[in-house]
């Protein structure tokens, strides 16, 4: 069960999706998805491989257009946004993806400065350094500021990836399989970090994961995508306390405690 008491405002939906439908040719991936992400909440999206979790994230971030339905993110009608308006919205969303690799030829400091210098040109050098130090402190890696990515462990690189996302002060964080490929101790550290980010930066987050230990540790609420719709939602216990064979199978394959 999750520790701490996050401040969640259920009267504000930072993401609101209604009747979302998306197909590719004959393949109906999303068949009428409804979803709200409340302000300050960590929402875990569960679902076996190929159920459309990445498609959902791509639609939320405007990388894919839905066939039907409404997708509202931070008050914006995402499928209607184009060009700079879409870029501006994306800057308010932090993406922590498995393949969001660091630049190997740059120090940690340069890696962290990069998105800031590119997107917020009015900052002074002192302000940039202060932001770098703040996010490094948040992920517990202040001492690595002058190191190269190759000198860090996999878990540390993951933390720096999250710091690089936080440096733009996003309202929403999207974590795609944050613990994939990490050892159990490092998984616990990343789970703790996701909760610390929620508390310290007041972000609202969607966490996509197969790792049910992670889901349990970080999720204020979870939803499970099954056959193109969210069939189960609630707390961990509410989602898994069912006779639905598909849910039981998912649990048996994915829960290691
Ligand atoms: N651009 C695309 N064109 C055609 N088919 C696509 C496209 N994007 C995704 N799909 C298909 O949609 C389905 C859902 O894919 P998606 O990547 O969302 O799955 P997922 O739930 O994220 O899986 P995983 O956990 O393995 O990452 C898959 O069958 C995939 O092949």
UniProtKB/TrEMBL annotation:
Cross-referenced Pfam families: ABC_tran
Keywords: ATP-binding, Nucleotide-binding, Transport
Domain ABC transporter: 15-252
Domain of life (superkingdom): Bacteria
SMART domains: AAA
GO molecular function: ATP binding
Protein name as annotated: ABC transporter ATP-binding protein
Species whose genome carries this gene: Rufibacter roseus
